[in-house]
Design a protein that fits this description.
834 residues; mainly alpha; ABC transporter transmembrane region fold; three-stranded parallel β-sheet; 8 strands; nucleotide-binding
Length: 834
């Protein structure tokens, strides 16, 4: 079916119309050749020859477009439009002069040709074939990508959606898919590619700073002695290097990548198109007063025999306004589209940055600031694109309009311009005040959102201790400061808007008054008055939006600075973990030293994940990694979506995962089963349920390496035993995978393959459980102490865990007795030989 549709699309009969017109032009050329001397003029033969050539070329072009599945062509539309318009005069001549009585053959040939031309022009307003739609898509593709050129010019492709919105409220199912160029999957990689180039351009300025810090670290490591233990954390390195900051490093911090430069390079082509459309639109806007002046002059003089000039001027004014409006609408549409592109791109970039930033950036960037960057600052970048659209040609439009006014009413226009100049000092003061107030406003907004986030995270504690009034007062204090700044900004915006909204009327009044009062011979006639008013109307839009332009530019400067600062912060180094497929070990840390003040257990996992800064050594990992944190986190989605986590749904694997992770019983409790909506942070799930969902998410991912950070701490003992046996243990679902289990539950140790003991940030012992217990080293001593303390409170323990602890005590007791007997035997032997 798809092949048949493609052949039908590429092998249609529409392009034969061009060949038929070429044949008719050839017939007309033959008729001229056998006709009278007047019809055999060189101009007539040349015209028919050009028609034949144009029709043949258009047939070839149409055929190629169909083979390439091009649904519409502006060249074809304008060709048929100009051909139809130009043949209006011959058609009028044939009908009015009744030339069909003299040459019926030429008349029939022309009428057939003209009918085909008009039909072809009408058919260009329709798309001949719609591409077959994929039934798996929930939404239809955007009709803009497949509409005809006339529909594109008039925005007719939106009619269906607007009619739907007129009849009822628009729902999500009514919306179309975004065009490919507008999707974040296309925009974000393009932005990140240019952003990385910009970072590389500025990297030499930062390499000096990193080199100074690295030299200090290398000297420190060169003095360290070799040891059999493996250093994982080294707190002194971070403190030592942080105390040595060179002047070169401080100067390098001032050189950051430029977000504005990246955006300009990303949008320069589309913005040039937008600028050209706006410039041509302004040109037609300026032509309207000129044509109006010529029309008034024509009506005043009424020259005989030149009636056609009046018709031409009227039609020209109409077409000028139509073309101006059409070009302006398309330029505005493109500018708005560019703004939306940048907003979506920056939101995705900030979100991506929040996931990849290193620990120092996490400490400086709060949640409130990141939320403001994505909601407020990204929106201001979108708004400034419209401002740039207006500001791109406003100076030229203003200068040309003033020049035309000078030629119309003379030097009096400069008095009005002087009035505008007087507004500049006031404008400069308002701009400086707005810039500082906007910066303070965003700081208070960040503080307020940060406090809101802290309150929501600790709402249980606030309710427990009845701290709501005090925190409400803190929020109120910040909000009052924010409102005070907003009030000042509103006053300044009102002052500026009042000034520039009154400017066009004051300029018109002052200019006309100066022109009339400057000289008694100056009289405003109809031509000067209407042309001047028309030119003042040209000046009115730039002056009306000038205050908003200044305000948005100020806002965008602050937002660009904030976004630039955040995006230029350091990320986690991708080289922290090497993806070496030739390595024998699936996961290895060789002579690794990392910097990050934290607890040891999660620090080991973070080092293997690349979340810690590596000072020296190598971390190698083969394949994909799944991580189960100690504190499970949930998405505000269904339970199924939380487990799938963007992966395709495979029923057999999904059901097996639910069974092994002890979630089937929970699904019977939930109202909608696995389709139950999980609230924010899993509020409608217990701690054990959230932990089991977290384990199921990792199991369903089918990764190569699993990093498990005490995943069974929040579940009941019998559930934990079942999950360990069915999933983590040697006979579980992950038995063929590499599993790193960080746990404080010593009762799991007899069932693991290898035990790694960490002490003071270093690996002190490693081996199987039996080897470490038989060795009777620090690990065995720790187990003795721990199990002795547990034995004293064994009545409060879970029976299953108590049973495991009992077996472990028996094993340790046998090892201790064997060691004691060996010591006694050795002592007796020494006494015997002595």
């Amino acid at each position: 079916m798809a092949a048949a549709g493609f052949e039908d699309f590429c092998g249609g009969e529409f392009w034969y119309c061009c060949l038929m017109l070429a044949c008719l032009a050839l017939v007309r050329l033959f008729v001229r050749a056998v006709g009278d001397a007047l019809s055999r003029s060189p101009a007539a033969f040349l015209g028919d020859g050009l028609y034949i050539t144009a029709y043949v070329l258009l047939a070839v072009m149409t055929r190629n477009e169909r083979l390439k599945c091009i649904h519409t062509s502006p060249v074809t539309f304008f060709f048929w439009l100009l051909t139809s318009v130009c043949n209006v005069i011959p058609f009028y001549t044939y009908v009015i002069e009744r030339l069909y009585n003299k040459d019926i053959v030429s008349f029939l040939v022309f009428m057939m040709s003209y009918a085909l031309q008009l039909s072809s022009l009408g058919l260009t307003a329709f798309v001949e074939h719609k591409h077959p739609q994929c039934t798996c898509q929930r939404k239809q593709p955007c009709p803009e990508t497949t509409c005809s050129f006339p529909s594109f010019l008039g925005f007719w492709w939106m009619n269906k959606l607007m009619i739907t919105g007129y009849r009822r409220d628009i729902e999500e199912s009514d919306l179309w898919l975004l065009p490919p160029k507008e999707q974040s999957s296309v925009l974000v990689p393009a932005f990140l590619k240019r952003w990385k180039k910009e970072q590389k351009r500025c990297r030499p300025f930062h390499s000096q700073a990193s080199g100074m810090g690295k030299s200090v670290t290398d000297k420190h490591h060169s003095r360290s002695d070799s040891s059999e233990t493996l250093p994982i954390l080294h707190h002194d390195n971070l403190q030592h290097s942080s105390q040595h900051t060179s002047p070169e490093a401080k100067s390098a911090e001032a050189r950051r990548p430029s977000l504005v430069r990246v955006i300009v390079r990303m949008l320069v082509k589309d913005f040039i198109i937008c600028f050209l459309q706006k410039a041509v639109s302004d040109l037609f806007f300026l032509l309207s007063p000129v044509i109006l002046g010529a029309l008034i002059k024509y009506l005043a003089e009424r020259p005989e025999g030149l009636e056609w000039q009046g018709y031409v001027l009227c039609v020209s004014m109409f077409l000028t306004l139509i073309i101006k409006s059409m070009l302006f609408a398309h330029a505005m549409f493109l500018a708005a589209r560019l703004g939306i592109r940048m907003k979506s791109t920056l939101i995705a970039a900030v979100y991506r940055k929040a996931l990849t930033m290193n620990n120092s950036t996490k400490n400086s960037a709060t949640v409130g600031e990141i939320v403001n960057l994505m909601s407020v600052d990204a929106q201001r970048v979108q708004d400034v694109m419209i401002v740039i659209f207006y500001a791109s040609t406003t100076p030229v439009l203003f200068v040309v309009a003033v020049m035309l006014l000078y030629f119309t009413i003379g030097p009096a226009i400069f008095v009005g311009v002087l009035l505008l100049v007087c507004c500049v000092p006031l404008n400069a003061y308002v701009v400086s005040r707005q810039r500082s107030l906007q910066s303070d406003n965003l700081k208070y907004k960040d503080a307020r959102i940060r406090l809101y986030n802290e309150i929501l995270n600790g709402i249980k504690v606030l309710k427990l201790y009845a701290w709501e009034p005090s925190f409400r007062e803190k929020i109120r204090e910040i909000r009052l400061k924010e409102v005070a700044i907003l009030f000042k900004l509103a006053v300044l915006n009102t002052l500026m808007s009042l000034c520039w909204d009154m400017a066009p009327f004051l300029v018109t009044l002052v200019t006309f008054a100066t022109y009339v009062l400057a000289d008694r011979d100056n009289h405003l006639d109809a031509g000067q008055a209407f042309v001047s008013l028309s030119l003042f109307n040209v000046l009115r839009p730039p002056l009306a939006v000038l205050s908003k332009m200044i305000m948005y530019i100020i806002l965008s400067q602050v937002s660009f600075k904030r976004l630039n600062t955040f995006l230029a912060e350091d990320d986690l180094d991708p080289s922290n973990v090497d993806r070496d497929s030739d390595n024998d070990a699936v996961l290895s840390i060789l002579d690794g030293t990392f910097t990050w003040d934290t607890q040891l257990s999660p620090a080991l996992n973070d080092a293997m994940l690349g979340e810690m800064e590596k000072v020296k050594g190598t971390v190698t990992c083969m394949g994909t990694i799944a991580y189960v944190p100690q504190q499970a986190w949930m998405q505000n989605a269904s339970m199924r979506d939380n487990i799938l986590f963007g992966m395709p749904y495979v029923r057999s694997r999904y059901r097996r995962t639910l069974e092994k992770c002890e979630l089937e019983r929970d699904l019977t409790i939930l109202s909608a089963g696995d389709l139950t909506e999980i609230g924010e942070k899993g509020i409608n799930l217990s701690g054990g349920q959230k932990q089991r969902v977290s384990v199921a998410r990792a199991v369903y991912s089918d990764s190569d390496v699993y990093l498990l950070d005490d995943p069974l701490s929040a579940v009941d003992s019998h559930v934990g035993k079942a999950i360990f046996s069915n999933v983590i243990g040697p006979d579980g679902m992950l038995r063929g995978k590499t599993r790193v289990l960080v746990t404080h539950g010593v009762h799991w140790l007899p069932m693991v393959d290898e035990v790694i003991v960490m002490n003071d940030g270093k690996i002190s012992e490693r081996g199987s459980y039996e080897q470490l217990v038989s060795h009777d080293g620090p690990f065995a001593q720790f187990l003795k102490t721990y199990l002795t303390e547990v034995y004293e409170v064994e009545e409060e323990e879970d029976p299953e865990i108590a049973e495991i602890h009992g077996k472990m005590r028996e094993r340790l007791g046998s090892v201790t007795s064997n060691a004691s007997s060996e010591d006694i035997t050795l002592a007796n032997a020494r006494r015997y030989f002595h």
